[in-house]
Amino acid sequence: MGVINKERDEDIRPSQVGPIKKYKKPISFSYGSEPTIEMIIGSKKSMILKSPSRLVLDTNVCLDLFVFRDARWQRLIQSMQSGDIECVTRDDCRTEWMLVLAYDRFGLDAKARDVAMVEFDRWIKPVDALLPIDAKLPVCKDADDQKFIELAVSSGAAYLVSKDKALLKLARRIRKLGLFEICSPEQWVARHADMKKLSY
Fold first, then answer.
1. Beta pairing class for 181-183 and 37-38
2. H-only helix segments in 31-184
3. pTM score, whole prediction
4. Can you say whether residue 69 is alpha, beta or left, with left for phi > 0 and alpha for psi between -120 and 50 degrees?
5. CA separation for the pair 125, 120 (Å, rounded)
6. The CATH number of 3-8+20-191 is which of 3.20.140.10, 1.20.1250.20, 3.40.50.970, 3.40.50.1010?
7. What local confidence, expressed as pLDDT, does residue 186 receive?
8. Which residues make beta-bridge pairs with 182?
9. How many Å apart are CA 102 and CA 150, to the nearest integer?
10. 3-class DSSP assignment, residue 21
């Protein structure tokens, strides 16, 4: 996953965050009162019940929201606060977030890192979402970003909101497969511009 340096607009790469666990059998996913999602991917049968309000945010977008406070994506925060959307994560995605917060070039002290971590955990909820081992998904050129694709599919997310070029290049292919939508924060905000404005 390439993390964008806000000052130099260059990519930053995180340390190894460990292997992604895979299970041999399809799994069920349940989120609160949402219906159970049965998944058999890579075969002729595939049933993924998507929630239109569920999103996956990549690390760059989370930096904009919880560290840089980018006003352009205020709609995302407003929608989280109002309950119009729910954002989800899993262990390896959260681990990457923790590692990125510690990068020296961001100049975050312990207090600033703690604040960003608290906000992340407040608005982005962990889910038990692991793909079966025979899952066949489009492969991201940046291997560190593959986990966001897996999470979006296995959690039934409608959108993966990303600033990463490698992920955005897969948008058309992912859409054709009927899995979910990959879009930039600009695109997501534009599509939801008519949502009720809330204070941030």
1. unpaired
2. 59-66, 74-82, 91-101, 110-123, 146-154, 165-168, 171-176
3. 0.74
4. left
5. 8
6. 3.40.50.1010
7. 96
8. 160
9. 25
10. coil
pLDDT tens digits for range 21-41: 333 333 333 333 333 334 434
| Amino acid at site 185 | P
Query: Distance (Å, rounded) from C-alpha 178 to C-alpha 59?
Result: 24
Beta strand residue intervals within 35-128, DSSP E: 37-38, 51-57, 86-89, 124-126
Q: Strand locations in the chain, DSSP E? A: 3-4, 11-12, 28-29, 37-38, 51-57, 86-89, 124-126, 157-161, 181-183
Task: Name, in order, each residue with C-beta under 8 angstroms of 111's C-beta and a sequence gap of 6 or more.
Answer: none
Residue 125 corresponds to which tokens in the numbers above? 């909820």
Q: What is the pLDDT of residues 68-117, one digit of tens each?
A: 999 999 999 999 999 999 999 999 999 999 999 999 999 999 999 999 99
**Length reported for the chain:** 200
Q: Which two tokens stand for residue 134?
A: 């025979």
